[in-house]
Each structure stands twice: as C-alpha cells, then as structure tokens.
Amino acid sequence: MKMPILRAFFLALLLAPFSDGLADYVPVNKSVPEPRREFRAAWIATVHNIDWPSTYTLSPTQQRAELISLLDLAAETGLNAVVLQVRTECDALYKSSIEPWSFFLTGKMGSPPPDGYDPLEFAVAEAHKRGIELHAWFNPFRSSATQRSSKSSNHITRTHPSLMMSAGTMKWGNPGSDFIRDRAISVMVDVTKRYDIDAVHIDDYFYPYPKTVNGKVYDQFDDSSTYKAYRNKGGRLDVRDWRRSQINEFVSELYSSIKSTKSYVGVGISPFGIWRPGYPSSVKAGLDAYDHIYADSRKWLQEGWLDYFSPQLYWRINPPDQSFTALNQWWAEQNTKQRHLWPGIASSRILSSEDKGRPASESIMQIEQTRRFAARSGPGHIHWSIKAIKEDRGGLRAKLRSVYSESAIPPATPWLGSSAPEPVYVAPIENGQGVQLLFKPSTTARWRIIQVKEGNSWVTLRRIPASQESIQLDSKPSVIAIRHIGPTGILSIPTVLANQ
Fold first, then answer.
1. Contacts of 428 (CB under 8 A, 6+ apart)
2. For residue range 113-137, what is the model confidence (pLDDT) as tens digits?
3. Which of 169, 207, 258, 408 is the most core-located residue (most Cβ within 10 A)?
C-alpha cells in the first residue's frame, strides 16, 4: 500500500470520533449472510484465434483492447472466472525462457509482441481488477496444431524431433517419454511461480484422438519404439494399460508439483465428458476415452489428483444416449472425494449447424441442473466458449443475467487449507452521494468481498483484490459488510459498518 493511503487510513481512524463525515458509519455486531457460492466461468481459446486475439494481425494495443472488452463482458454477465489458453502447441502466450512465442499471437512463432507487453501478465491484472479469477489453460502434449507457419528453431518439434508423433495433420509430444511429460509439468510450474494465476487447467488432449474408418477406430500415431523400450526394461503392462499409466503418472505428478510450488493454486482438468460407453448404462458413445485417448479420468477424480473436474458435457439434457443430466448425475456419484464438479457447457452450440435448433434456454437449464448435483463445496460450470456470450447467441446474455441475478464467489477449497484470514480493517470516508472505503493491508487474504444492506435485503456488490487500497461506493447503504477471502476461498469474519 502506498504511504499516502496508509496515512489517510490511520488519519481516518484517528479523526472518526470528531468528524461528522467519518462518524456516520460505526462498527456494529450484526449477523451477515455469507455470499452465494458458484463457479461461473468461460473458456477463452487462443488456438486458431478462436476467441482471442481474434486474429494474429492485431496490434498489441488492439489485442489489449479486445481482451479488456471480453473481461468487461464476463464481469457484466456475472462470471467470476475465465480460463485463458496460454499454451496451444508447446508455445507461449507469455514471456518464457522455455518455449517460443505463439504463432497465434503475432503470426510468426518466436516473435514477441512488438511493444514488449506480456499478455498473461496483462490478463491476470485486468481480470483481477474486475474480481475475476484467471485460470491458465495448457495443452500438455500437442506440439503442432497448425501447418500455416514454420516452427521456430527453439520449438520442441525441431529440438527433439525423435520424441514427436504424427497424428493426422498435427504433431504430438509422445506421452510415453519422460522428457515430454516433465517438460509439460515444468512449463506449468514455471507459470505458477512467475504469475499470480488462480489455477492451472488442462483439457481433453492426452493421447491423440483416433480416426474412424468404416466404423472401426484406429490410433493415428506410432509409439511402438517407446513401448518396445519399456518392455526391454522389464515392463509387463500391455500397450493400452501402459499408455494409461503414463497419463496417470503425468496427472499425479502435475498435481503434486503445483501444490509444492503454490499450494493454494488450483488444478483443474476438463476431460471428454463420457468416461466409457455404458457409464452410466443409458449412455452410448462412439469414442471410448479410456481406451482411445488413454484417459482414465474417473481415476483422477477419485484419487483426488485435481481440485476441480469439468467434464465436457456438451450434449443436450433430453437425448437418452448422451444425456447431460444422466452424465452429470453419474459423475456426481463418482466424486467420492468431493472435489469441485464444474461441468463444461456447450453454449457455442446454441443455434449452430452442429446442433440445429439448440436454444439458449438449454444452457440455462443445464446451469440449474449443475446446482442440483453439485458437490458439497458448491456448484459451478464453464461455458464453451466466451464467443457464444460475445455473440449473444439466442439472447444468451439476458438469460444468463437472470440465472446469475445474485452475485456469487467461487466455492472454497478447504482441502488446500481451512484457516480463515484476518478481519478487514477499514476506514469509511463519506464524500458527496457515496462513501469511500480505505483498507489496511492484509498479509493473509487474496480478495475482499463487499456486501451492503438496504431495507431488509443484503446484496453482494463485488469482489476486489486484497491488494486494492480503496473502493468508492456510489451510494450510502444503511449497512456495509466487508470480508477477506483467503487463498483457498475461506471467509474471514465480517467487518460490519452501520450508517448512523
């Protein structure tokens, strides 16, 4: 906190008994309802310029303006988190000494933004200003998603070509390689160390998705040499079990590595929405993620190798073969460790050619269902993707504002720490039609949450970073309550001020 603000804070406390403007608000003992808990997020995809930047030809100034517009939209809609893709193909949308700048940022892999700005640093700061969490999203194994540009000389496909697998038009780092798995983890640990992110997030890309020919499913890659080396060292697992074991080891090691770096930073995984065909019994699927991309996602959930689990439940509620409701309920039954269960919702399919006639009300009904089957810690969901909200497909924005009519903060994660932060120390200064709140610095909090009471109703105004020195309220509520939120989401006792 800057010294002038500190002096003003303590001066306000000293003068409070003698100033009409300051003394109108006095501390009181009053019960305050806890703010609503719900994780409300959207993915922001950078691969192929899906969401941001909309094209790699944008200048840095245009990129920043476009991202601010998306974050403003998220805040206005009622979201409290975004999941920003920062590694699309073993590249970086941030300053990295490990991997090259992304092609999707500048149009040339390895080329930094010309004005030297760091997109991730900027995104974190701007998201937090708006009370929005920033989850950094990584693709751990895909190494080439586009053939539109040559890879830079320091890209992994050129420095370690023997560890790459071809998968159709894409390339993949071989998950059976210790180096490839360790590299992906080291990248995520590096970002966790250097940036004030709220969580690390990986999606459904583990081994490459298969191809289907005449109804038969085939692997698109060749990892026979890696498997042969494993067998030559005495390994006994068959090739499919061995592949799953490599992914399991990666997920487990990723979780422990992030926790040993910053224990409060979340780890989220968003796998294919169906564990296996027939689970639950009503569900049918052409893809068996367990046997085709070697993702035993139920095991990760039940082992507790993650903090939140966001299966991509992109189907509608009604089709019995792949019912959102049936799958959401089944995953809730598998959640034996009561980790956060925050499904992915396909808002992008509203009025799309992929799902003709899908109304915006489908997303709203799915949000309501996530509230029914939530873990004890609280409900949540992620929209694929923010573009659907930006384009207001089917009038989605108004419908979301309705279902988000009550502001919410993300659920707490008590298994990462259950200590409450210190109470808020605040000095109110009335000015004009409103009141300014000055805050004493906190060493134990990450956020503050502000609630006000008018008449008999409490309203959650907003969440602000605990580092923020002050906030201006545009009115003079009868009661103001401020709590600290700790790094794992635990609330402090409220500091309550009543207008006398």
1. 12, 22, 24, 25, 435, 436, 437, 438, 480, 497
2. 999 999 999 999 999 999 999 999 9
3. 207
* Maximum separation of any 2 CA atoms in the chain, in Å: 85
Q: How far is the first Cα of the chain from the last one, in angstroms, to the nearest whole number? A: 29
- Residue 321 pLDDT > 60: yes
Asked if residue 390 and residue 436 are part of one domain, the reply reads no
- CA 491, 33, 338, 383 dihedral sign is negative
Residues 89 and 52 in one domain: yes
Q: Is residue 411 part of a domain?
A: no
CB 322 within 8 A of CB 364: no
Q: What backbone phi and psi angles, to 5 degrees, belong to 128?
A: -65, -35
CA torsion, ordered 146, 148, 153, 156, to nearest 10 deg = 10
CATH number at residue 435: 2.60.40.10
B/e letters for 166-203, b = 16+ CB within 10 Å, e = fewer, are ebeebbbbbbbbeebbebbbebbbbbbeebbbbbbbbb
What are the distances in angstroms from CA 270 to CA 91, 257, 259, 297, 320?
Answer: 20, 19, 19, 9, 22
What single DSSP character describes residue 145?
S
Is it the case that residue 22 has pLDDT exceeding 70?
no
44, 83 Cβ separation under 8 angstroms: yes
The structure tokens 């439940």 sit at 313
Distances (CA, A) of 500 to 13, 27, 336, 433, 476: 17, 10, 50, 15, 11
Domain endpoint, select from 373, 406, 439: 406
Residue 8 reports pLDDT greater than 60: no
DSSP states of 354-400 = TTTT--HHHHHHHHHHHHHS--TT--EEEES-HHHHHTTGGGHHHHH
Q: What is the CA radius of gyration of the chain?
A: 24
Alpha helices, H only, 209-321: 224-232, 239-261, 289-292, 297-303
- The CATH number that applies at residue 270 is 3.20.20.80
Residues 201 and 59 in one domain: yes
Could you tell me the pLDDT band of residue 215, with boundaries at 50, 70 and 90?
confident
Rounded CA gap, 274 and 272, in Å? 6
Q: Please indicate, yes or no, whether residues 70 and 9 belong to a single structural domain of this protein.
A: no
Question: Do residues 9 and 478 make contact, with C-beta atoms less than 8 angstroms apart?
Answer: no
Residue 433: C-alpha distances to residues 9, 21, 471 (Å): 20, 12, 14
Domain enclosing residue 462, as ranges: 3-35+416-499
Last residue of a domain, one of 406, 427, 456: 406
- Cα separation, 497 vs 11, whole angstroms: 18
pTM over 0.85: yes
Give yes or no: residues 219 and 317 share one domain. Answer: yes
On whether both 45 and 68 belong to a single domain, the answer is: yes
Q: In the predicted model, what is the mean pLDDT of residues 208-234?
A: 95
